[in-house]
Amino acid sequence: MGKTAFVFPGQGAQAVGMGRDVFETHAAARAIFEEADEALGFRLSGIIFEGPEEVLKQTANTQPALLTVSAALLKALAERGWTPDYVAGHSLGEYSALVAAGSLSFADAVRTVRARGEFMEQAVPGGQGAMAAVLGAERDALAALCAAVSEEIGTVELANVNCPGQIVVSGTAEGVRAVAERGKEAGAKRVVPLEVSGPFHSSLMKPAAERLAGVLERLDIRDAAVPVVANVTARPVTAAGEIRKLLVEQVYSPVLWEDCVRWLIAQGTDTFVEIGSGTVLAGLIKKIDRNVRVLSVNSAPSLAEAAL
Fold it and tell me: Which member of 69, 146, 186, 211 has the lowest number of beta carbons within 10 Å of its beta carbon?
């Protein structure tokens, strides 16, 4: 029997109105939205369902919003008896994975990612950091180019290793610009600047990681009931102490998503269930291995299909 992994999207998957139909049709999902509003002390659900998009796109809102939608869909899916062998999440999605694994309570997770979003926005003054998607480059060649540019011009590092031919770099605005200009040296076909509020998953995020460490120290983190494949190591983790340490490192380390998926496939995972807004992860997983089954549970109709 093949194994199943539940996977959860991160920033960039958000859309105004996401999760509204599951809120309206599933009492368990509605309770999650209500819990988020109560835990945060404001109507996050209103921002999720009605926007405006500029407000939803603010990192400190996007992160708890995506977590809430994933947790609501997860609750509705759990009612149908689905359980995973493994869980994983892309960046912010790792918090959704930890909720799914019973390591974090939803209320603690939603408060923590709200703070994480604020810390990440505040770590680097606006305009000084940047991120860009590099398409078609070879990973080692791009890492070497980033190292050379970091030495000559300004910090720039691999931030998300998403799938073959899609790697995101992050760092100073000058460093990212230089990689974009010299991308062909690493085999890049195209470099696309990303609309983000900071150089996420680069060493410039260490001030945010230090502030987050203070929040995580006070948090009740439990051993995970299901192995969580961590972004930082692309290996499973269940021990609470290790989870806490990796969540701090994750803020300034690359998200090794391709490596996480390859490790899961090597363990016999043949079904990936993406739970949350959009279909970003389904697309990446299919580019890593087109032979695996991928389901996207992002709405009430898709929940019904997943139950079949």
Answer: 211
Report the length, in residues, of the chain. Answer: 308
Residues 6+ away with beta carbon under 8 Å from 87: 5, 6, 7, 8, 97, 98, 100, 101, 224, 226, 227, 228, 229
Which of 26, 201, 253, 277 is flagged as catalytic?
A: 201
Task: Spell out, as residue ranges, where the chain has pLDDT lower than 70.
Answer: 307-308
Buried b vs exposed e over 190-226: b needs ≥16 C-beta within 10 Å?
ebeebebbbbbbbebbeebbebbeebbeeeebeebeb
Torsion of CA 280, 284, 289, 295, to 10 degrees: -10
Please list the residues that pair with 119 across neighbouring strands: none
Strands 190-193 and 129-135: antiparallel
- Global pTM exceeds 0.90: yes
Tell me whether residue 150 is one of the annotated catalytic residues: no
Active-site position among 91, 103, 202, 253: 91
Mean predicted lDDT score pLDDT of the chain: 96
| DSSP β-bridge partners for residue 246 | none
197 is catalytic: no
